[in-house]
């Protein structure tokens, strides 16, 4: 349990929030949300003790252990992977080191024997005798295979290190767990493993994430940082989002009577509660909405970009034909092979693979930027495309101002292009910035504005939620659900995939799986799971 009392955080004259009083209790998972810069990660740092608050206190239950997902991926470079995970249980690790030092002494005294006996009891009570096995199981669940366990951390890739640091935070089932963006660089299957793990976690968890599906699956409560305040709500992210949008519509409807508003809100809570009760993560101890009252539902101050894709012409029946396509990496390793499919009218296809380079290779090929190792493709004559590449670096290697940069990709006057940038939440003074100094999120919003200018009837999106904040992701997602043309995309965002795609194509080095179904149905189909295992047999991803 974590108790926050009269907490305030201020940097210079800027007050992030003050008078924060709340209690985070065992068995609950709290999703912390807020606009960029609102102070989500700062709140976690204040609770962990990494940051001294301007005012107030943070306390945990007597004898409780706190674990924090480390963002320093170089701190443990001289340790093996297995050691790094076990170091997450600091108490156990210190006992183990002292115990080891005593056993290695040449002049072992009677006092040393007494101390060793004490340490052995503590070691056993802390789970020391199963620690290596427990750490190995965590690593396996997170996709870090046994051959890597004795390697030094410095020899791992960045994505492998992320998984090890997550295993370290989870190790030993801490009483209180703080996770800042735990799903970053995890594939969809590993995120699902983490959802299941946290769904059965009996202690207190605070998590910051941009992954809406993850927050929905694991969170019992939402901590919203808005209005310069930190407010605790019952329910997950979807409940918070839908209820805040409902409250906003009500606030805009001046004619609606107070009693009608209350009944509408109560009906919304009733319907949402019925859906929550069917969730696989919900247990009797996690009744998300049991104490919620209507007065807690308020509109948010969040601003959502105006992402609106429109088509200049309807696509014809012939969209894209791909025949026996193969792609390889620079070393000649096969990324995908024997890829044959036709894109039909109204198809919204997500491409997935254990190797994300496969989707990027496909998109680069069908956009004419890369040659296939074998095979061919053909676009229909009525099809116009707009492409959002994974790497947009080349677009911003210029000191052009944002307004001039966007003007390259369409026709219109200054007011026309200012309107597009304004819809993407760029203010008047911001549009005069040089594009080479923009943040990753700002560059993505510029790229989305560029795509909208094309009025294409086929959108090609390579991991479109990268670098975007929650509001931009939600706006993007909402519009794609309504888009009448074709969409070909890859994504790590479960909610994005499940609400946009109506067809799944999985790329493997041994062939292709092509199914007309939702992503949820795809990943939970036993027959498809067996087929996928066969497709990856003999590959590094087996």
Structure commentary:
This protein has a six-stranded mixed β-sheet, with helices on both faces. A six-stranded mixed β-sheet has the order 14-15-16-12-17-18, with helices on both faces. Strands 2-1-4 form a three-stranded antiparallel β-sheet, covered by helices on one side. It is globular, with a radius of gyration of 26 Å. α9 (237-252) runs antiparallel to α10 (258-276). It contains 18 helices and 18 strands. Helix content is 37%, strand content 21%. A hairpin with a 2-residue loop joins β8 (221-226) and β9 (229-234). The chain folds into three domains: 1-64 and 175-302, P-loop containing nucleotide triphosphate hydrolases (Rossmann fold), CATH 3.40.50; 74-162, no CATH class; 320-400 and 434-536, Rossmann fold (3-Layer(aba) Sandwich), CATH 3.40.50.300.
